[in-house]
Amino acid sequence: MLYTKQTEISRATFGRIPLYLSYLRTLDDETATISATTLAGKVGLGEVQVRKDLGAISGAGRPKVGYAVRELIKALEARLGSSGNTNVVVVGAGRLGRALLDYGGFKAYGLNLSAAFDIAVEQAQESACGKPILPMRDLEAYCTRHDIRIAILTVPADCAQTVCDRLLSNGVKAFWCFAPCTLSVPPEVTVKYENMALSLAYLNINTIANEGDLL
Amino acid sequence: MLYTKQTEISRATFGRIPLYLSYLRTLDDETATISATTLAGKVGLGEVQVRKDLGAISGAGRPKVGYAVRELIKALEARLGSSGNTNVVVVGAGRLGRALLDYGGFKAYGLNLSAAFDIAVEQAQESACGKPILPMRDLEAYCTRHDIRIAILTVPADCAQTVCDRLLSNGVKAFWCFAPCTLSVPPEVTVKYENMALSLAYLNINTIANEGDLL
Question: Partners of A175 in the beta sheet?
């Protein structure tokens, strides 16, 4: 309770947590405190930025002393949720699903993409990185056993709702949905939609606009 | 010039263009006009929304007549940039790069991911969908020959800037960057950063927050 603040932090601040942590974790045990100035220099950010970020996450440093390193690490880890690793499942083990399953970047944020499921998989397989790719019939048991709260949907749009419903009945509270569809979920459940094509297309029209062509 | 407006449109409006187009393209040549009411019903959106979207894209419909179907299609296609297909290259043909290269969803937005490049590729290969994956030495010639203005970077962070510089010298004006880094580009060049891990992690903390746990 000492180390964390309940305030909302911005996505930008949140995104910088791994940067702070990766430096702070290199410090030996003898380094009890660190000033915002030093930390800012080490991670290549402005001092004002660092004070603001850490202020939102763990509270202000002590004047002339700075931040207690161990406490700061704990506060940052708690925000990331990485003290306890969060298991996430991927449903739909096509190219995108497999790419996400094996992507190494989630770990820094305390996220463990622990398994994928696919309707075309009859017997348990392994991904290129050795993660399990399981038949759909194992979905419910797996979610219960691993306390899955977050699922990534990389299934075709026409079966996304069916998959979503099965996951909802098994305690999933948040979806990252790559299928081009709108999911019907209870109000307490979060859905983040990812439309890769739209992201690129929007970049395209803005580029054309910058070039002065007729839109 | 008749069909398009120069105004900026929102990402949300832009995202609905394929929806309008996919319905309008099913109409036969005898359907010369369509009302906002009819179109709204067919695509499952509110009439106000449809009027607003089309107003921003092609101007208002004529009272009691509606929108001229052929002109509306042209205006929507012009906004998407799909009358002339935009070629895009992917640099970095790892799992994510290949998943994007072969993803079918870009086509509806007039985008053609035409080739990928990778430092590990010595001889031209084909992706699972038959698209070329080429050696890095072919990058410059390919970009020039295919008038490439947009590149997707799915390379490791430590070589992203080098790749970016090579593409900049060859006329690329926009980057969709999946590498966790900040690219240094001239002011007229657009970079959209995609941090997949951060997106999922942010969903995670918001889910925990909804559950009332300590952040």
Answer: A151, A191
Per-residue pLDDT tens over the stretch A115-156: 999 999 999 999 999 999 999 999 999 999 999 999 999 999
pLDDT tens per residue, range B152-201:
999 998 999 999 999 999 999 999 999 888 899 999 999 988 888 888 88
Contact A150 B200 (CB under 8 A): yes
Model confidence over A102-112: pLDDT tens digits? 988 888 788 89
Crossing angle (nearest 10°) for helices A36-43 and A11-24:
90
Residues B192-210: tens digit of each pLDDT = 888 888 888 878 776 655 5
Q: Given an 8 Å threshold on Cβ–Cβ distance, is A200 in contact with B4?
A: no
Closest residue on chain B to A157 (Cα): B105
Q: Looking at CA atoms only, how far is residue B80 from chain A in angstroms?
A: 7
Q: Are B150 and B142 in contact (CB under 8 A)?
A: no
The yes-or-no verdict on residue B151 having pLDDT over 60 is: yes
**DSSP designation for B155:** S
| Chain A residues whose beta carbon lies within 8 Å of the beta carbon of residue B196 | 100, 103, 105-106
Distance CA B23, CA B25 (A): 5
- Using a CB-CB cut-off of 8 Å, the residues of chain B touching A177 are none
Q: What tokens does A65 get? A: 């002393």
| Inter-chain CB proximity B99 and A102 less than 8 Å | no
Q: Which amino acid is at B178?
A: F
Kindly give, in sequence order, each residue whose CB lies less than 8 Å from that of residue A185, ignoring residues fewer than 6 positions away: A164, A168, A175, A191
**pTM, rounded to two decimals:** 0.73
Distance from CA of B137 to the nearest CA of A (A): 25
Of the residues B103, B204, B214, the best mutation for testing chain A's interface (the one with the most A CB atoms within 10 Å of its CB) is B204
User: B97 exposed, middle or buried (CB, 10 Å; 0-12, 13-18, 19+)?
Assistant: buried
The DSSP 8-state label assigned to residue B60 in this structure reads: P
pLDDT exceeds cutoff 90 at A175: yes
